[in-house]
Amino acid sequence: MNNDRILLAHGSGGQLSHELVERLFLKHFGNSILARLDDAAVIQAPGTRLAFTTDSYVVSPIFFPGGDIGKLAVCGTVNDLSMSGATPLYLSAGFILEEGLPLAELEPVVASMAATARSAGVQIVTGDTKVVDRGKADKLFINTAGVGSVPTDVELGSDRVRPGDAILLSGAVGDHGMTIMSQREGLRFASPLVSDCAPLNGLVAAMLKEEGHEAGAIHCMRDPTRGGLATTLNEIAGKAGVGIEIDEHAIPVREAVRAACELLGLDPLYVANEGKLVAFVAPKAVEALLAAMRAHEYGQEAAIIGRVTAEHASRVVLRTALGARRIVDMLVGEQLPRIC
Amino acid sequence: MKYIDEFRNPTLASSLLADIHARATRPVRFMEFCGGHTHAIFRHGLRQMLPPTVQLHSGPGCPVCVTADADLDRAIAMSKLPGVILTTFGDMLKVPGSHGSLQTAKAEGADVRVVYSTLDALQIAREHPERKIIFLGIGFETTAPTVAASILQAEAEGLHNLTVFSLHKLTPPATRAILDAGESRLAGIIGPGHVTTIIGSQAWEFLSQDYHVPCAIAGFEPLDILQAVAALVEMAEGGQPAVANTYSRSVRPEGNRAALDILCRVFETSDAEWRGLGRVPASGLALRPEYARFDAALAFPVDPGPTRQHMGCRCGDVVRGAVEPPECLLFGRACTPARPIGPCMVSAEGACAAWYQYGDIGHE
Amino acid sequence: MCLAVPTLIKSVEGDMALAELGGVERTISLTLTPEARVGDYVLIHTGFAISVVDADEAQETLRLLTELAASYPDETNGNLQSTISHQRS
Predict the structure, then answer these.
(1) Chain B interface includes C62 (CB < 8 A)
(2) ∠ at Cα A172 (B47, A220), nearest 5°?
(3) Residues in C touching B190 (Cβ below 8 Å)
(4) How far is B361 from chain A (nearest CA, A)?
(5) Same structural domain, B330 and B200
(6) pTM score, whole prediction
(7) All residues at 6 or more sequence positions from A200 whose CB lies less than 8 Å from its CB, including other chains
(8) Residue C16 sits in which domain range?
(9) What does the pLDDT look like over A165-223, one tens digit per residue?
(10) Are residues C47 and C58 part of one domain?
(11) Which of A62, A87, A209, B180 falls between 20 and 30 A from A261, CA-CA?
(12) What are the residue ranges in chain B where pLDDT is below 70?
């Protein structure tokens, strides 16, 4: 291409649009379905239930330690599918590009999406590109929708959560949100904070396989993204009408995340994660599932963080390190750094 | 984390609590002046671990909560002036004024930016010589010296586009005002640890001399707060009011002289309007005449019109310690963190926000 | 009042310093604590050091608290919890 920046014409559907699709998106995403460039991708799904989800990604900055907006866009949708027990199969990718965006910034994002999709075993089979005037989009926004197949014997949902369930967390919380915050606040890191952005379908598959010995032992899974662990637990407690109790000392948090939170007056429980899951499981299966998680690349620091109870329905209660108990509410608005 | 983790030691906390339980024979009411203490007390679950004889009440030490409506309205009006970039600490962003907050002004097109430090505001001023940068100066004696230092830096660099809207306030006069109001019989005051690193523990001696009320200067970790409570219990039981410095690793009797010198070079005391306390003489900080060119109030005189208060909001009574948040009829109903009516529910340090967020599960 | 966090000064340049907490580093101003040196711990508030931590005093405070703990040997968390709940019922 003789242009090195996105022009409005790239979004108009004409020659430049076609060039962009062929020379950038096809080059990286290349698969036989996408190569047909039909209006819709016709895909074969095994005769089971389909899981379908969509999310948009507007993170700034678009490149950060541990990932980029593209990797996030693939992982986020793959993870949403995985949380319902689905095997992720196909993704769509819609791009809204700001006029003037250098291709030198766009191409690495696209390459990253392709690499992440490959490692997650999914294909990006359809997409769209629009270009808006300079200043109308912050460099680029991405929407991904995803489809996956749910095996017949898998039934995950907040309605299955019940008192007595153990709560497992796959690893340390707060990495992603504090990494993004650190890029904005101008904090520098000796041991750099890195986003935990990762596709979790492999971890979920390992857990479901282990669970096979105790059919139906996993009741519900969620990935605690925006709003953090506290918000996700509150959502489940509210939907399921149960109480949740968690132990402060059991929740893994990296020292650098703790430190960054202290400096900004933030609470790790409310900070976003992009490569973690919580699972609500029947007590009999806890040890085996924990072992299966810890054996997996993305679950090495998995821990039991609490339990579901019949008391204080819809409320999440934390047992503090001192042994006292206090309520953990949902995040309201955004966490802003505070001085007081 | 050094000087943090050691002061969260559960075993040492348990023995402090046992000590307090053993000594506190009579009911006593202590006020923790500082919103940061309220927040820490709730976060670590300390209230429920103390004996029922020891009652803790929140004071006016939340700079967001005590900012008067009229002053906030002026700040919001300033943010809407052409060419202005209004820089503010995050704490103030969502506080409702008479017609919306700084956040709604931002959504409507005002250039409002959250900063972590006045150093960030200085940087914005350097980068935008064509714009007028106003720094919204809230905070007590801990924060005011940092603002003073930044004004001196701006002067040294010859920056002409930075002004400060000073709403800074002083804590000892507010404490006097509360005790003078005599609404709650306080047996002791947990003194603000970080303010006192600046003003020095000697600044609190008026509490024992003029009011015969014991004071314990406390840091913000659980052991600090419990140590202060234990000291207050001992002094209340023994009838010997004094100022106990239980934050001696950071607080000195004379305070931080360098910070006080810088503060006094730029600021002088003035009367100030406090939500809940009204006009308190010599309780605010205004820019000295020789620094008038850095005074946003002079550079941008605005008249935002009459203030509009929400019927039923009792933030004023809450900051004075006269009522506890659940006694406000709006608490948890019309007024929640998602839809706050008063600043006590918005601010992370506000008593209402702490009560709402952390609950009072030990007392259920 | 107000959030201030103890950090270690790793290096100084003029009146600015690099301060570290738990592996996280931040550039801060030493204008209010001109006496601070590399190796000192300082409380930082909104990007400024406001006080140098007195290591001896910190140690003394912990020593006193440890002594107090020795005079309440049975007060592990568990015992204290049951004391508290007994009181409340």
Answers:
(1) yes
(2) 90
(3) none
(4) 6
(5) no
(6) 0.90
(7) A75, A78, A79, A82, A83, A170, A223, A275, A276, A277, A298
(8) 1-53
(9) 999 999 999 999 999 988 876 666 665 789 999 999 999 999 999 877 567 899 999 99
(10) no
(11) A62
(12) 360-364
